[in-house]
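Troubleshooting log. The previous run stalled partway through. Resubmitting the same three chains, unchanged.
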Amino acid sequence: MTAELRADNLHLWRGEQHVLRGVGFTATAGRCLLVTGRNGAGKTSLLRTVAGILQPEEGCVFWRGEVTGVDRRRFQSEMCYLGHDAPLKGDLSGAENLHFGVGIRRRFSADELHAALARTLATDFADRPVRTLSAGQRRRIALAGVLLTAATLWLLDEPTTNLDASGQELVTALIDAHLASGGIAVAAIHHPLALDARVTTRLELT
Amino acid sequence: MNWTWFHRLGSPPYIFKLAGTLTPWFAWLAAVAIAYGLVGGVGLAPADYQQKDAFRIIYVHAPSAWLSLMIYTTMAVSAAIGLIWRIKVSHALAAACAPIGAWFTVAALGTGMLWGKPMWGAYWAWDPRLTAELVLLFLYMGYMGLRAGIEDTQRADRASAVLAIVGVINVPIVKYSVEWWNSLHQSASVMKLGKPTIVPEMLIPLLVMFVGFTLLFFALVLVRLRAEILRRERTASWIREVLAA
Amino acid sequence: MTQAASPWQAARLVVERDLRLAFRRPAQLVQPILFFLIVTTLFPLALSPELSRLRDVAPGVLWVAALLSSLLALEFLFRDDAHDGTLEQFVLSGQSLTWLLFAKTFSHWLLTGLPLAIVAPVSAGALGVDFASMPGVIASLGIGSFALSLIGAIGAGLTLGVQRGGVLLSLLTLPLAVPILIFGARATELAIKNEPYGAPLYLLAAVAVLGLTLAPLGAAAAVRIGLE
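Second attempt completed without errors. Output:
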């Protein structure tokens, strides 16, 4: 079945808070879902629920027409989740981090790794220990990791955090390219992303 | 088959009411049974040939020990049901069981020590059953400690459920290993809390005590379960209706 | 289409990453070993300098010291990975979480339990154990520390995110570790007395195998709950 992400009547409680109240959406290939809402509205919780880290009390997430809960690992192998803080080990270099981090998901060649780093303009500092890098540099390494997963579905939690103007343009360009090749993106954002309105759908969480 | 009654068991308001109705019944039956057992065992039954009157502690020790184990199993099964089928009441039941089980374990240990004094001349000995009972107490304390350490009730429920299941698998292993260890180091004096030779006048009060203690557990756990449900559902609307009535 | 990594590849990468990270901070590597050596030194000071007396208590001393150092080290099994999101990526990797956590536990044992077993003869010698007994000492502590890492992974997963969870981790793990202690210490004791120690060693290995099959499942369940 073609790539399609659908959520149906998601209800989620965090402690005593009813965070997601009947959230539903559809995102087809080549489209980006932008999730907006104030702090605490549940953007991160929604992304984590779609990813399968959180279990909703009610409702389902469908990927390619099938409930993701049934074969969770297959769904997760086609999906990439980038949270607020990129999972990078300070003592390893950026390249090493990607080698291990993405390596447990898929095989890739050294060329692919370098190509991904070049795409996010991270080549210059990819061999230095991550703890010596600035927050913006780390985010570029993390974005290279997203590219390297070659996943069809991108779940991005505030992808432009810590990035300057050129960095934000980079994120927009990466998402554009991803959508153009038939991928799907769900991004939780605070600041607007300059994506083509024809390919985006907005979901406001209250 | 009509499964409505089964589904209702998962509903907090229903269980809350049911527990409230059943508790006095269990409590009174328990009181009667325990009274009979104590009078029959401690008062009327003949003294044991070897242990004389000291054996009478078995009327409290044996039921306590058995209950400590039974409650742990109940706790683990209830937690497992709550984890697998995501039933809140099941988790509440597991939480309610834990302190009661811990206290029965303390009672078993305490009565074991009281029995030990006339039997071995010392309050404590590393008898296999006492040692295994002590480890069981630590398992209970670990469970309660984990629950207390996690703030979010749902996470605490599920984490402690995993712990209870792991613990229940471990209990037979611990028992076996402790008995094996103890048999290697058996000293000359009679270390075991041996059962006296049982005649019916001794046995029947003992069985009644088992029943009585079990009924007591039911009564206690239902009271605690109501309190747990109250605490967990305190923001729900049905609580206000019930309390207003 | 992308080619997924095989489970063996993924496990190898997990172990390699942990080893590489550990060797970049060698000072931290030796700490559990040092702790073990110091604790075993305390016993002669607290008991008696007579080697014959020490040899009697040596199995207990070695095992309690090994248990305590392992418990200290267990705190760090998942902690760093949980903090920086690596553990979450394990859950989302499309690989079996049970398998990845087993790989992590294995690398943890390679870095803490195995060195402990290898260093133990030094302490054992200081407690009056003679040279011929050392293989038995190493074998029992080696298998025992492996079983302990497996069981401890469950507690480590359960206490993720608990404030000052270190002591709670010990409280949870110790009752579960009683069989390991009993069989392991007995094996060590027989080895020290130069008697055949096969029986308890097999029982210890059986517990380890049981832990091998069941504990990673428990750890995976615990980690999933902890990440919510």
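Takeaways: The beta strands of chain A are 4-14, 17-28, 32-36, 58-63, 66-67, 79-82, 153-157, 184-188, 200-204. The CA atoms of residues 157 and 188 of chain A lie 5 Å apart.
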